[in-house]
Amino acid sequence: MAVQHLTDAELTRLAEELRAAVPPLNEDEQRIAVAVYRLLAEGEPVVETRIPAASGIAADKVARTLARWPGVYRDDHGDIVGFWRLTQQEFPHTASTST
């Protein structure tokens, strides 16, 4: 694939589109997102009960937050296998978000 060089205006527009695609996060939400990324990067499905200890956020708040976020993909056991474009395994593109 050839490298495409973008103009400053195109880069700015792309950055704005990417920023708009991710919801703004408060401090607790940032901690949850970072914890999910770190746990998912270990290469195994993330059991939701691990996230409170990894983030320092109460389990009920973690559950409520994940339930309302788009882009949280779970396997048949309910474990997280994909999160905002990071996946540890291939999965169908038919949207299967948090339950």
In short:
With 99 residues, the protein is mainly alpha-helical. It is 43% helix and 9% strand.
Describe the structure.
The structure is a single chain. The protein is mainly α and 99 residues long. The chain has 4 helices and 3 strands; from the N terminus they run H-H-H-H-E-E-E. It has helices at residues 8-21, 27-40, 51-55, 59-68; strands at 72-74, 80-83, 86-87. The chain has a 3-stranded antiparallel beta sheet with strand order 1-2-3, covered by helices on one side. A hairpin with a 2-residue loop joins strand 2 (80-83) and strand 3. The radius of gyration is 15 Å and the shape is globular.
Keywords:
single chain; 99 residues; mainly alpha
Mean pLDDT: 82
Number of beta strands: 3
Shape: globular
- What is the beta-strand fraction? 5-15%
Structural class: mainly alpha
Give Rg in angstroms. 15 Å
Number of helices: 4
- Ends distance: 37 Å
Runs in which pLDDT lies below 50 for 5 or more consecutive residues are none
Summarize the helix and strand pattern as letters. Answer: HHHHEEE
Largest sheet strand order: 1-2-3
The main pleated sheet reads as: 3 strands, antiparallel
Structural topology:
Blueprint lengths: L7 H14 L5 H14 L10 H5 L3 H10 L3 E3 L5 E4 L2 E2 L12
Antiparallel strand pairs: 1-2, 2-3
